[in-house]
Amino acid sequence: MRRKKTPRKKILRTCFIRPQSKMLDDNTPAQESGKLACGDGEKEVALCEANEQGFKPAPEVNMTPSSRFLQVELELNVHLRRLTFSNPVRYIYNPLEYAWETHRCYVEKYCQTGQRILFLGMNPGPFGMAQTGVPFGEVKSVVDWLKITGEVGHPQNEHPKRRITGLACTQSEVSGARFWGFFRKLCGEPALFFRHCFVHNLCPLIFMSESGKNLTPPELLAAEREALLALCDIALCQAVQALGVSMVIGVGKVAEQRARRALSAADVNVRVEGIMHPSPRNPLANKGWEEVAKAKLVELDVMSLLSNP
Fold first, then answer.
1. Does a structural domain hold residue 31?
2. What is the pLDDT of residues 153-171, one digit of tens each?
3. Where is each Uracil-DNA glycosylase-like domain found (predicted)?
4. Per-residue DSSP letters for 51-84?
5. pTM greater than 0.70
6. Contact at 8 Å (CB) between 131 and 169?
C-alpha cells in the first residue's frame, strides 16, 4: 500500500501502544539530572528502531474517523513519554493514559464523518480533562450532557492536592462549564453539536509545580516547551487530516496561534480562526463569555450549523 507523504515533515516509523485505563507503570516520573520524565517507555521504545523519531501517517483504509483519530493520539503518547521537563515542573499527568477509557468513549461516541469544525483547546485543566479525559471536561457536563462513562485510573505520581477522582470529582471547572454549557443551551442535544463539530486539545499533558499550581505550556522552559509542542503540532496536523475538517477554531489566542503556525508549516489547507477562552482568569470572559462567543461564531458562519431547523 502506498503511503501518503506529509508535506514538509519527515516521516519515520514508530510503534503504537494501547494505554490502559488503570495506573501505568511507564507513566512513572523519574529524576535524571534534575529533570522529570513523562514516562520511561522502555518497553515501547524497544519495539521501535533505536534512533527513530517523528510520526507516520495513520492508515486510512477501512478505518472510521474515530479510529484514525485515536491512533494519532496513541502514537503521540509514545513520543511524549520520551520527553523530560525541569523546574518548575514537578508533576505531569497524561489523561490519555490513565483516563483512556472515558476518553475513548468520548471519541468513539462523537468523532464522526462529516464534521467540518474542530474547536481546539490548549491542554487539560486540573478539574476538567485531567479528571474526565474529555477536552474542557467539566464533570457535570461530561456525565449529564455528553453521557460519558468509563473507569478513570490514576497517574503514577499524584500531587496530594491534585488527586484524580475521575467522574466522581465534585469540583467544577469554570472554563469547561462555560464551554459545554454554552453549546448545551444552543444545541439542546449533543448530536446537533457533533453533527458538524468536534473538540480536541493540542497538548494532552497537564503540568504542576511543587505547590500544585497549574502550569500552562507557555510557562515551561523554552527548549522543553518547543520540544513538546513540536510533537503536538505534528499530531494536530495528522488529526486534522484524519478528521477532514475545513476549519480549526482555537479556543484562546495561544491555541489559535499555534494551530495557524503548525498547519501552515505543514501545508495543511484549512482555515484557522479563534474565539475567546472562557477561563475565569480572563476578565473579559467573566463579563459575558457566551455573548462574545456567539457573536464570533455568527461572524464565522458557524452559528447556522448549531441551530435546530
1. no
2. 999 999 999 999 999 999 9
3. 109-282
4. T--SB-PPP-TT--HHHHHHHHHHHHHHHHTT-E
5. yes
6. yes
